[in-house]
Amino acid sequence: MGNRPPIVVIRNLCKSYFRGNQVIQVLNDISLDIDDGEFLALMGPSGSGKTTLLNLIAGIDKVDSGIIQVGGVDITSLSETELAQWRAMNVGFIFQFYNLIPVLTAFENVELPLLLTGLSKKERRTHVETALSVVNLSDRMDHYPGQLSGGQQQRVAIARAIVTDPTILVADEPTGDLDRVSANDVLELMERLVHELGKTIIMVTHDPRAAKMAHVIKHLDKGVLNAHPQTDF
Amino acid sequence: MHILKLIFKNAFRHKLRTFLTILGVAIAILAFGLLRTVISTWYLGVEASSASRLVTRNAISLVFPLPLSYKEKIRQVEGVKEVSYGSWFGGIYIDEKHFFANYAVEPETYLKIYPEIIIPPDQKSVFFRDRKSAVAGRKLAERYGWKIGDIITLKGTIYSGNWDFVLRGIYRGRDENVDETAFVFHWEYLNESLKKTSPLRADQVGWYMIEVTNPNIAAEAAVKIDRMFKNSLAETLTETEKAFTLGFISMTEAIVIAIQLVSFLIIFIIMAVVANTMSMTARERIGEYAIFKTLGFGGFHITGLIFGESLVITMVGAALGIFLTFPAAKIFGKELSTYFPVFIVEPETIYMDIGAALVVACVAALFPAWRAVNIRIADGLRRIG
Question: What is the C-alpha to C-alpha distance for residues B35 and B329, in angstroms, rounded to an integer?
């Protein structure tokens, strides 16, 4: 990764939730650097705070204390509106259940994030076609999510995540709802995104096979982070 | 463009629920439109009244007559252009169920003052010549299949006996709001008969109709007329035709208010129905709204999606309701022509329909939109799967 500064810098991050009157400490003094072009897997038991950490890095939740810098921007200081704009430009999301809009075609789903940009219709079409070709779904662009398999839907979701060329991609259990073959396809695709397109991916997973694809594996347990570097990278 | 497509697609995702909501809105708008038409019909006489026409009646009550001799005195008042007079006859045709307005007038002056009543010239000249003749409105003649030359017999209630009239003319209204269900005949015919049967009631009229040269002097002329008959045996009350008509309407004000309340109650009920639909819709799609927010769409977009969907459902229902209002009003008007001689859906009623539908759509979308905008993304995403 050379001497380039980390793309994500997290310092002394704390996050807690209220359950009734009880305060649940979810993340406790987390500090972490993620390099540009890195594929990081976050693992840990249920309730360890993996998804919460991912949500905080992606700017869809607010920290109690600490700093998160993504691409040099301290996202903890941004307002809700600024954060929404920042997410649109800098973060691509891949969810466990794909989260495609069922009444829109694959093309329209991928085009959604581009509606927030100033691109013309023609430019949007070019971007969408490129993204769909990256995930090998150019021939399915007019299909609705209900007409696609789980693996294909996840690939559409990946196309939607990369179409704006974001700074980071966050993936929450991207293979959790897929069969083995489809899961392998999706993981290979994510690896291609890192190797060929230089994308930075932060992935939450329970699946050790999925984690194996990552450059770095971090373990969260009871809100505390433990490093576990990937040996075969 | 996709947002619009999404709004339309979302609106019809739950087809049965959307269909039932649209049907509910359509029926509510139809009922609202008909009730508003009933109210506007109630005031139609007021709208049809002319600013340059006055009505003079007995100051005690319309029931009490005025001497015929007042006519020439009224004519002398400065600014008075024409004077006519009439008496309510209240005759019954066949039986009480077949009600229509019937009154005796002085034909030539009456038709001068009311140029909106159009009678073909040949029929008019025969009507003027024949004292036993009468003219009927087009709708009334159609209702009973009357033709020129038919003998119409009315049973007197105020003036006893059976009264035969020869139908010499059928009038139509110059404007849409002219009552075409009235029956008018010669006051002279009534008076001649009274001279023979009850002479004390002869030479008396129910009211005077006065045309002034200029609407601006109407109030002044009214004061002059009433002052002229001050301290006489029959003091007068002169008012504009509009005020005279409003006086009648005020007697039935409670009914009008009740109809108005019911019309707004209907809108309130349908507002609750649409709000319920939109709440269910927003609750089901809270995960999708969270996805939109995750992708960077702001509260403005989420609000637009929910308000848009509410507008699509409500406005489709409203369009259907408005479309059905016209044939329904035609049937309604035909069936109840006895009570509503003119039953026209006014443009204002349609504007009110549209306005009510817009209010329903916006109010129904308020709470779901507020909820969707304010839900935390993480909580919204947790609802998926």
Answer: 10
